[in-house]
Specification:
Shape: globular
Largest sheet: 6 strands, antiparallel
Strand content: 5-15%
Protein name: asparagine synthase (glutamine-hydrolyzing)
Binding site for L-glutamine: 98
Radius of gyration: 25 Å
Catalytic activity: L-aspartate + L-glutamine + ATP + H2O = L-asparagine + L-glutamate + AMP + diphosphate + H(+)
Pathway: Amino-acid biosynthesis; L-asparagine biosynthesis; L-asparagine from L-aspartate (L-Gln route): step 1/1
GO biological process, one term: asparagine biosynthetic process
Length: 595
């Protein structure tokens, strides 16, 4: 991922170059490898690069051979080679960047190109071959990457885009989070949805499209494996975030298998090359120990976890890593270190949502450690809980239709919470997080599974399956991977069937307690009683929320900035507590007893 900043529709762009270069510096943490700037007839495109694919040639903004189409992209296009093949000899490429394929696709298909892309991306494309010049801007289907759009009363007719809010707050008095799965076209000032999956209207107020497909465990497993495989596209060191929970452990397990396949293929290719270049008698066959030693010299998958001392996540991650054979790194933080980081975390997150701040702080601290080791990309497990109804409050769903509608609603709003957290807390240090669960193909399979198959089983006669395993949250995902391909299980039973922990709980329960205690000392009863006077809209309901909002307002004091924040809370009409912690749900540590 990278950082992009663009403005279109301004007078005399060359005169604005210096000012926009200064604004782009606010995004440099996202792209420390290179900075690029293009000044056009009516606009400016700036790019802060984190080089992962096409490292040696992919600096941006990218410019077409005729110099008329200019492109700045934040993200990765996983199917870029397949797309290049469809263009044949009609297209020529100047770089090895996965993003460059967008330019010839635009020339051939216009803004319809967006639905052809498989990846995570936000981009701004400037077409100077037409008058007036044209801008196309788009964001990936779920909003894994971040993108904001803004307008300024000081510059009527100008439209701004940025990967982060902080580059726009001093320029724009109206700012929105650009909607995922949409494309903007300056030609008619339209923003239209290009992402049209079959499950999209599952949360409609009237005539919702309900999921009715029986679960196919093999298809579910193989689609997720393919999603992980395509996300290993990288020319730099990568790893996995491993909390020891189901989602991150499954991603780590698949990635470890795929990494071993790549290492073995590289080893075998090297051996073939050596054999072909060696004259004389045939090279003696290596014994097993020598072969193992050679294989061990190839890169292994690295895994990373964080928590308070002896936290649930650290212990579970350690067990998973040992089972998977990853090179494991764990980092212990203290409550005070977390509290000290909160202002910086809020600056990078650009939200006052309590859940997001709680969960992002450990992730922010871990990302700094990972980047210091030279790793630029990690795989992460975001999205599974929304897709499969894994949050413990889903236990309160009154029926399968409501369960499915809530899944759809949560997936549609991932860009306001988990995707925002995964993107910004890692990119604060120039670390890219990729999320296989949000693969388009996996979503199409998983979101169409009958919600009755996803629901928690409350009836004692249906609470366990034929193997005696509890039909708990995300049962179908656990069941899909409860097998032994090639004789080796994906995970130990204790990890595969571990109960859900919110990430902010799993790093150590005293982390949330520490934030609450700190907020109670910071916010007086008198100030808290007047909170509705200060914030009549989105009024904080706890001292923790007040404390976080206070910091946010100090960093981003404009009303335009505050309007971009969205709070994550469980379903109140299901009788759930507004506290997002898993411990606030009565099912936690009570509903299931397992070995």
């Amino acid at each position: 991922m990278c950082g992009i900043l663009a403005v279109h529709g301004i007078e005399n762009p060359p005169a604005e170059r210096t000012r926009f270069l200064a604004l782009s510096k606010r995004l440099r943490h996202r792209g420390p490898d290179w900075s690029g700037c293009f000044v056009g007839k009516e606009g400016i495109l700036l790019h802060e690069r984190l080089a992962i694919v096409g490292v040696d040639t992919g600096a941006q903004p990218l410019v077409s051979e005729d110099g008329q189409v200019i492109l700045a992209v934040n993200g990765e296009i996983y199917n870029h080679l397949a797309l290049r093949a469809t263009l044949g000899s009609t297209a020529s490429f100047k770089t090895h960047s996965d993003c460059e394929v967008i330019i010839p696709l635009y020339k051939k298909h216009g803004k319809d190109l967006c639905s052809m892309l498989d990846g995570m991306f936000s981009f701004v494309l400037l077409d100077e071959s037409v008058t007036p010049t044209r801008v196309i801007a788009s964001r990936d289907p779920i909003g894994i990457t971040t993108l904001y759009q803004g307008w300024s009363s000081k510059h009527p007719g100008a439209t701004y885009f940025s990967s982060e809010l902080k580059a726009l707050v001093d320029e724009c008095d109206t700012i929105i989070s650009f909607p995922p799965g949409h494309v903007y076209d300056s030609r008619d000032q339209s923003t239209t949805r290009y992402f049209q999956p079959s499950w999209w209207d599952g949360d409609a107020e009237t005539n919702p499209v309900l999921a009715t497909t029986p679960v196919d465990y093999t298809l579910l497993r193989e689609t997720l494996e393919a999603a992980v495989r395509k996300r290993l596209m990288s020319e730099v060191p990568y790893g996995v975030l491993l909390s020891g929970g189901l989602d991150s452990s499954l991603i780590a397990s698949i990635a470890a298998r795929e990494t071993e396949k790549v290492a073995r293929a590289q080893y075998e290719a090297r051996q073939r090359k050596l054999a072909e270049s060696t004259s004389g008698p045939p090279t003696p066959r290596m014994d097993d120990l020598t072969q193992q030693a050679m294989l061990a010299s190839w890169p292994q998958l690295h895994s990373f976890s964080i928590g308070l001392e002896n936290s649930p996540d650290l212990l579970a991650a350690r067990k998973a890593a040992h089972f998977l054979g990853t090179v494991h790194h764990e980092y212990v933080f203290t409550v005070q270190e977390g509290l000290d980081a909160i202002p910086d975390v809020i600056y990078h997150l650009e939200t006052y949502d309590v859940t997001t701040v709680r969960a992002s702080t450990p992730m922010y601290l871990l990302s700094r450690k990972i980047k210091a080791m030279g790793v630029k990309m990690v795989l992460s497990g975001e999205g599974s809980d929304e897709i499969l109804g894994g949050y413990l409050y889903f236990h309160a769903a009154p029926n399968s239709d409501s369960f499915h509608q809530e899944c759809v609603r949560r997936v549609k709003n991932l860009h306001t919470a988990d995707c925002l957290r995964a993107n910004k807390s890692t990119m604060a240090w120039g670390l890219e997080a990729r999320v296989p669960f949000l693969d388009k193909a996996f979503l199409e399979v998983a979101m169409n599974i009958d919600a009755k198959e996803k629901m928690f089983k409350k009836d004692s006669n249906q609470a366990v399956d034929e193997d005696g395993r509890p039909k708990m949250e995300k049962y179908i995902l656990r069941k899909a991977f409860d097998c032994r391909p090639e004789g080796t299980p994906y995970l130990p039973k204790s990890i595969l069937w571990r109960q859900k922990e919110q990430f902010s709980d799993g790093v150590g329960y005293s982390w949330i307690d520490g934030i609450k205690d700190n907020a109670a000392a910071f916010v007086s009863d008198k100030d808290f009683a007047k909170r509705a006077e200060r914030w009549p809209v989105d009024t904080p309901d706890t001292k923790e929320a007040y404390y976080i909002r206070e910091i946010f307002d100090g960093l981003f004091p404009s009303e335009a900035a505050a309007k971009t924040a969205v709070r994550w809370i469980p379903r109140g009409d299901w009788g759930c507590s507004s506290d997002p912690s898993g411990r606030s749900v009565s099912i936690h540590n009570a509903a299931y007893e397992r070995d």
